[in-house]
Amino acid sequence: MLFYDAQALGMKLPLTGGCSCSAVRYRCDAEPIVMFRCHCRDCQRATGTGAACVVYVPLTAFHLTQGSLQHHSTPSLDGSDNKRGFCAACGSPLTGGETDDSIGLHAASLDDPSIFRSSMDIHMSDAQSWDVVDPAVPKHDLYPSG
Questions:
Q1: What does the H/E/C string look like for 42-92?
Q2: Which has fewest Cβ within 10 Å: 1, 51, 56, 61?
Q3: What are phi and psi of 124, to 5 degrees?
Q4: 38: which DSSP letter?
Q5: What is the mean pLDDT of residues 85-99?
Q6: 127: nearest Cα among 117, 142, 137
Q7: Residues near 139 by Cβ (< 8 Å), separated by ≥ 6?
Q8: Distance from C-alpha of 113 to C-alpha of 20, rounded to nearest angstrom
Q9: How far is CA 79 from CA 13, 35, 42, 76, 105, in A?
Q10: pTM of the predicted protein model
Q11: What is the distance between the alpha carbons of residues 69 and 49, in angstroms, rounded to a whole number?
Q12: Do 41 and 16 contact (CB within 8 A), yes or no?
């Protein structure tokens, strides 16, 4: 797993964010485990963009400070379900890839999305030709090995 140096990125903890109507607010008290862009068709449909920009954090450090998330699940390539959280009032997608120990936050839902630094692009096999990707960031056809 990759860990980020919060101070080197100008990242101030806690990370905070929420939906566009402010009905749901959250706080994360830990540095991200990894940040990446997922280009799978599922993330494209869930976000309405070419890729989901994900800030993956420990679930124990994630706390809702206002409102509650509604959830829906989409199928993952590994055969499990991808648990996705959104605001029931405005529909803003906020989370994805929730497991028993971690949760992905949509970078644009952060109060300071400028902290997002992708360490990799995954599911490049589904990337759209119109989606501009950083050539310096490692690419994976599906998931990274290991």
A1: HHHHHHCCCCEEEEEEEHHHEEEEECCCEEEEEECCCCCEEEEEECCCCCC
A2: 1
A3: -65, -20
A4: E
A5: 96
A6: 142
A7: 120, 121, 124, 133
A8: 14
A9: 34, 23, 13, 6, 22
A10: 0.91
A11: 21
A12: no
What is the reported pLDDT for 138? 97
Residues 6+ apart with CB under 8 A from 17: 25, 26, 94, 105, 109, 110, 111
3-state class of 41 per DSSP? helix
How many CB atoms lie under 10 A from the CB of residue 133? Answer: 16
Total residue count of the chain as it appears in this document: 146
| CB contact set of 23 (below 8 Å; sequence gap of 6+) | 66, 67, 87, 88, 89, 90
The whole-number pLDDT of residue 29 equals 97
All structural domains of the chain with their residue ranges: 15-126
CATH classification code of 15-126: 2.170.150.70
* Distance of alpha carbon 19 from alpha carbon 135, whole angstroms: 31
